[in-house]
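User: quick one, fold this
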Amino acid sequence: MFDDLVGFTWIDTTVLVVYMLGVLLAGLWFSKQELKGKDFFKGDGTVPWYVTCVSIYATLLSPISFLALAGNSYAGSWILWFAQLGMIIAIPLTIKYFLPVYAKLDIDTAYHYLEIRFGSTFLRVLGALMFIIYQLGRMSIVMYLPCLALAKIADINVDLLILLMGGVAIIYSCSGGLKAVLWTDFIQGVILIGGVAITLIYIITELDGGLSDITYSLTEGGRFLADTEEWVDWGNLLGTSIMLTLIGGGFSTFCSYISSQDIVQRFTTTTDIKKLNKMTIGNGILSIVSASIFYLIGTALYLYYNQNPDLITEDIAGRRDLVFAYFVTYQVPVGITGLILAALFAASQSTLSTGINSIATSWVLDIQCKLTPQMDAKKQTRIGQWVSFGVGAFAIVVAMWLARSDVKSAYETFNAFVGLALGALAGIFVVGAFTHRTTWISVLVGFGVAMLLVLYIKYYVPSVNFWAYSIITIITTLVVSLIVTKIQSIAGYNYEAPEGSTYATAKDYAQKASNE
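Assistant:
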């Protein structure tokens, strides 16, 4: 199909292989210090805040963003860019209301907080199981998407690519724990940022009018937002609109920040509020800037292929998730192609290795240690390594299956899943931080009602946009929890949250730290 194009050459293959070997060696290098127990799962406290900051960025910015965000703007709309802009909602809420609580309590995992706040081991285990299910799905999606794209375009076996990517991530995740993952994430994040920046600059130089073509297209050309996209849909506030995408995207990210173990795990590496604030704000800046670059790339690709229609085939032009990878493979100079595709693999591997390590951490500290409380640090580490291997292998198998399925928009599918699973879970965290008398029974009822409600909406009320799921589940969990707590109080059962487990009792800790 691409016989007249240069494509993926042996030089690019060499660059990609060198990158994979480099990541593996870097991971093994940072694994040379044997860490056991909580140091294996939380790090040894020596990783700088900026490394953790880039690690959060690399964790959140998956290949779903790398390919699908550019694909959405290529298709003619920047509306999902406003979901990335939702960081301006998520970051202040997280910094003000949750980081002081996590720092004061010095939690081991996200779900350790639930046990402390509500005095319930059951909630801790439930939260961990919810996260593990969510993360297994996410890992599989972010592994299959870039491998499928590269396999289709460069005529490489997709199973081989999935095995290569998954195998490397499993090795250094099992060997060095969180410290190795953080440092390799940092390296991969730098490669990722460099790769997309190089791509954008190159496309601009190839356009007839350069940067002016893009600015015209986004203003008078109508490629920023479609005519049908409204700022606010007053007839259906939960329908598709720019404002809902901004707010819903912000709350979805907020859910990840406060209740997703892969992110909260980075917050547990230090109790220094100033460092926590720096890494969170830095992550937000990186995320918004890089998302803007991805959308600029998508618009530039649309212009490029309109100016050079003979350089793209009809089947690729109709697959927006593949257009970016196609351009990188066939229109970028030899050698640079391998570098940019290495950035694509970097996005996948950072998410994959983080997923492996965070699942292992949550399983061992939240579940296994509750089953066998006297387990020593050496055994904890060994179990964590075996769990890492098992979940990595499982994700590889599921990714191979997904590569043979038909997922039209991986980005939208994933975000709908996040809103469904993490939204209801995050609601428990919100109730815990903002109320002081709610009980574990009340939040469990609220969680159940929220899950049932959003499932009903998903399948029977299609007019509600998936960006509203997180908002609905958080509000529902909060309201139902307060009602049930009131009923319990009338019945004579009262509960008081432990000191420091709510924002009201932890804010003094943050204030003291900021004054030092």
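User: anything notable?
Assistant: The radius of gyration is 23 Å.
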